[in-house]
Specification:
- There is one protein chain.
- By secondary structure, the chain is mainly alpha-helical.
- Helices cover 64% and strands 0% of the residues.
- It contains 9 helices and no strands.
- Helix 3 packs across helix 7, helix 5 crosses helix 7 and helix 7 packs antiparallel against helix 8.
- The longest helix has 22 residues.
Length: 168
């Protein structure tokens, strides 16, 4: 990956990395190297959830905890993260193994969403929570947020439990 491509990504993120190896790892898929982005993705997922929770807590003050949880689930799902990653042009800098690259991995929603979470985790490690939260808030600036958003489909066990509880 070329230095200009990384510089361009940093510009789009509005974050210049003190430790460029974090950026490099964040855009590296496991098919490319043993030094891949999955641990950063794990961390970024938690930072993302906290930052979005804070955003919703402030914006949707009249909503209940359940409503906030539903809206958050909608915002942090793969489809939304994929769209944000496309907007950031993350696919331009992804490092994929040859097989993954040939099979269209550059555009695969799960890979792009995971890379976005890894980038959030990398910013968190590089500059702390405040910088990572600011990145998340910038990412979600253009995303419509309203209390009527539907949650992603519930897993079957949760749906069954809620159905049973509703019928005592």
């Amino acid at each position: 990956m070329s230095p200009p491509a990384l510089a361009s990504l940093q510009s789009r993120l509005q974050h210049r990395f003190s430790d460029p190896s974090l950026l490099q790892r964040a855009v590296t898929h496991r098919s490319f190297s043993a030094e891949h982005n999955e641990r950063l993705e794990f961390l970024g997922d938690s930072v993302l959830n906290l930052a979005v929770s804070t955003l919703l807590y402030r914006r949707l003050q009249a909503q209940s905890e359940g409503d906030l949880s539903r809206v958050r689930a909608n915002l942090v799902k793969q489809d939304t993260l994929h769209q944000l990653a496309l907007r950031l042009q993350v696919s331009d800098v992804l490092r994929l193994g040859e097989g993954e690259s040939k099979s269209g991995g550059q555009q695969r929603p799960s890979i792009l969403a995971d890379a976005l979470e890894a980038l959030i985790g990398a910013v968190y490690l590089d500059a702390g929570y405040t910088s990572a939260e600011a990145l998340v808030h910038r990412l979600f600036q253009g995303v419509e947020i309203n209390p009527q958003m539907q949650a992603a489909a519930k897993d079957p066990k949760t749906a069954l439990q809620e159905w049973l509880q509703g019928r005592k």
